[in-house]
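Troubleshooting log. The previous run stalled partway through. Resubmitting the same two chains, unchanged.
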Amino acid sequence: MEDIPPYPPIDPTTFDLIVIGTGLPESIIAAAASTASKSVLHLDPNPFYGSHFSSLPLADLPSFLSTHSTSPSPPRPRSSEGSNEFSVLDLSTRPLYSSIDISVFSPDLLDQNSRKFNLDVAGPRAFFCADKSIELILNTGANQYMEFKSIDATFVGDNKGNLLNVPDSRAAIFKDKSLGLMEKNQLMMFFKLVQGHMAGEQDVKISDEDLQSPFVDFLNKMGLPPKIKSFILYAIAMADYDQEDTGVCRDLLKTKDGIDQLALYNASIGRFQNASGALLYPIYGQGELSQAFCRRAAVKGCIYVLRMPVTELLVDKDSGCYKGVRLASGQDIFSQKLILDPTFKVTLPSGLSPPPPLQAKLPFFSQKDDRGRIARGICITMTSLKPDMSNFLVVYPPRSLFPEQATSIRLLQIASNLAVCPLGMFVLYISALCNDDDQGKKLIHAVMNTLLTVPPINSESNAAVQSETAESGCAVQDENAESSSTGPSDPGEGKPTLLWSALYNQELTLGQVDFICSTPMPDGKLNHDDLIDAAIKLFKKIYPEDEFFPQTSSENPEDDGDGDDDVSLET
Amino acid sequence: MHGRPRKASKPEDEAASTAKAQKLRALQTQFFSFHHSKIYTKEAVELSAKLLEINPESYTAWNYRKLAVEHYLSQPDCNPESVKSVLDDELRVVESALRQNFKSYGAWHHRKWVLSKGHSSIDHELRLLDKFQKADSRNFHAWNYRRFVAELMNRSEKDELKYTEDMIYTNFSNYSAWHNRSVLLSALLEKKAEGFLLKENLLPEEYEFIHQAIFTDPDDQSGWFYHLWLLDQTVTTDHPLLVSTWPAHGSDVFLVGDRCQNGSFSPFTTVLSDSGSFPIVLYFNQPVKGVSSSTVIIECGFNKNEELLWEPLSVSNLQTAQVWVAHLKFPTSELDSSVEISVGYSKEIVSPRGSQYSHPSTFSFKVHVQPVERDSSRVSVAENILWREENFKAYRAQSEESIPIVSFDQLCIKNGHESTPIVSFDQLCIKNGHESTASNWQTEALAKEVECFRELLSLMDCKIGKLTLARLLTAYDVMSFPFANKLDEYSSVLLRKMTSSEESLLQHCFQYKDSVSSAIGNPICLRLNNLSLSRIRAFERLLWVQILDLSHNELESIEGLEAMQLLYGLSLGNNKLRSLTALEPLRKLKSLRVLDLSYNQIGDHSIDTTRYLCSSPLSHSAGSELNDVALINYWEAFYMFKDLKLNQLDIVGNTVADEKFKSVLVKIMPSLKRLDGQLLD
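Second attempt completed without errors. Output:
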């Protein structure tokens, strides 16, 4: 790392809680602990908020990814030895991303605008209008720091590049052009069944036996045709694995959970007046969410220090219990509790034998729970995948692109009106769960090949083509070549041309509650609810006595006018 | 706005409403004193505004404000700017009243009143409406007002249709939006706007559209209502059209006093008239009202000053009829003149459903009058038509003999030669360019609907779905089998086929053999005997018929026969007519002289099922020339025959026809010369 700028020493030096990393779960815990009147120090080695949940400028994304893809940097020279009371443990990062593949097809265009991008590291991600994260944002007042926009629609894609509108509401079913009349009737009847069940109507109650059965079996029992089943399972309930192939399905959705997902979706539609669909996206990207909670924490007295790596962990010599951390600036800070983001690895300093109590704990701490991997891709284009529509979600259910596709692939297109890219450009976030890097690549490439024109040659050879035509002396051809290298004039079937892409594979880890607590990595879900659950769990673990964001009656008296029951939505 | 449970009022609410009532009463007392003493000062007007803000339902207060505005406008010192500010004040008051109750009739009405003054900008109104229609998308007051504003600002129907469609897409449970759609589509169809030319193109699309709503949520009623409207649009025929006339367009009419002078007159168009007038018949595709001398303009070289009296030929409803007749007088001197008749240049001819006759048409014909010396004695004895087979000669055979080889085809061609005047077959009926090629689309649309709802009902139990299916099936049956039974269907098909070509029609044309006795001018006799007919149809092609033989059929009714205004001789012998009142259509046939009713079932049944058609004898002052006993016992006979000027009647073979009955008939009809073949004194 570069030179650490001289920092004024942090004062005080003792806290109730130190949180390292400003990812979403860490930020929520920091805000919750501050709200519970704990003194909190929140540190991040990066110069920005959000860690693995951040939204970064175009130029910064590749370096961030590569920093977290390499093995830990060799232990830096020890600044000072531990005192008599403490043992010192090395804190290093472990690689989280693999198989990073950045392709630049239009360098000039992008270089000029690099700062205008806010690319989500953990995309695609969105909010359901009625999900836990929105509730949390509203409850905590974090909504003051964020603005949202509705995502226009959800589509289901096929291998021919068609995007079928997902009839996800009464109005959408009515409007839909692809469903037959009987299908419309069946789908709406099913929605009504779910609504009636959720409302507790006796005559439409779904039996317990059904609720415990696989959702796909229940859908079959209701006689729903395959097309509608696929809509419900993958585009509304957002199931990840192929529900009809128990061989590859690692997560078979139960009817109960499926119904809950549908209920969430249903409650999301029409929750906010300006939001037409079920999904929301924050203006300036998902990084805003972590930042909003950090601001919330800061208001409650949490101290923030960015660009501050933590190098060592201080543990009690005798008990092996956590005592504090040593910062890159050399300062030692002490706290009762510590929360680490999942990138850290604790190692024994070389040549030192650990204190006996630690010997048992360390191996366990280093061993991460393997939850598989997630392949992510970010693509930038000059034209929308769907003319006259800017922001939308596309779901490719399992087996829709190729027979071996075992997981559903989600793609979120976000346009410049959400301030994530320069005017006239579009950012596509793609993700799919996978077992390894090769499988992940195949999944992401399958979507890109279906929807995008990937220029066959990189920028250098493109230039070569240009010079060649210039040599032949044909000015007109030259112009054409130029426009095709920069503009979105599409050679094949009017597909948008790819300008830039980043493909990477991310490790999925859950948070740990142990000797030291660590937060989970961004998961494979579309929304943040599981991460919020994990954060709440962590908070409860470290502060069992305290309430997680207690409801206060009049937190923001100045907020009366608009009613603090609402998120700010731009139309 | 909808489907919210009513909350029981709490005690504190009641206290608040008591206080509000008290305040309101005080305001009201003060307001009425201002109103009664016609005080329109600023304070007084403001008071009314305050009152309306609390209670927008106070009609008196709205009227008071109107008076105040009028009062202000009548002041000598008011200028356009101050007028505008006064009216803007009114709009503000309305807006705040609407905020209190957005369904206040008085408030919306007041707003319309202010805007009709024409001093306020309308642009603001659509924005206001958007607000109200967003708050409650079904609010019919807002939709009504929207139509008013759209008309005022000349907003195109297509723009409004787009708006309405967007509202439907937002939430299709919106009666008001569907209703507005029906209003707009009707207007566009009426205008024949581009893309809205033909119902048969539009309605299938609309069915498709409403299916989306109905199938998505069959429990929602708004879609079903729109479907009902569509069904109504499908089954009702379009605008009234003139289907045929007599005299036909381009025809030559020969009018003679007593008889045909020579064979060169066409037997089709030579008319004997002893009344000095001839009928003009208008035959529409459906019953209409409003045919009068102001809606039908006649131009002819004679009789310039006479206003024609148009009479509806309807037995049930005197106001509307499918066939209208007027009698045009002609001079006794020799005359060749043309007559032009224009129908529907005013828009008063409408169907009972209110659709206007909107295809004005004009037809003209030539009239040739041949004055003849009247020999009344000869006429009276000579007239006798014997409906016997041997008395009729096929028209074609006869013409081949007497007229040097003239085929019908040639006759049909208008060659301008005066001596071969016959109406061309094509002229019998008006070809309407506007007519849909066939009403096939209607039955097709209905069949499709039937199939569609059968499918829906196969999937779920749905009462309104069943009701709709029943409606559809009924409509479908009426449309594809408009006959009470198979026999009627057979009759109709037979008659349509027969009148469909000149060839087939001519096969039924005969001439009465004994031309000498033919004081009637020897016209064509159309013989439709022995065909097992139970109904008579296709009148529009038979308006020219003067002698008609319908004997030996299965007729129980002669409904529609009133259209044949030229009928002189009619045989209904050997049919199944059961009552005198079944003969009602005959009462409209002013030219009928010879009638054969022999061997029917008149009087078989003591209860006359069509009796209701007759008005009660007790309220009737006519018939005083008969003694009361006869009048009461033979009321129906009196009613049926008193207006007929029959010369010859055969009624033998009916139960009713006893001697006493016959003697009554003779009394009722002084003109009668022969009864059952017996020459009367």
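Takeaways: The CA atoms of residues 260 and 521 of chain B lie 4 Å apart. Chain B touches chain A at residues 169-172, 211-213, 215-218, 452, 455-456, 459-460 (CB under 8 Å).
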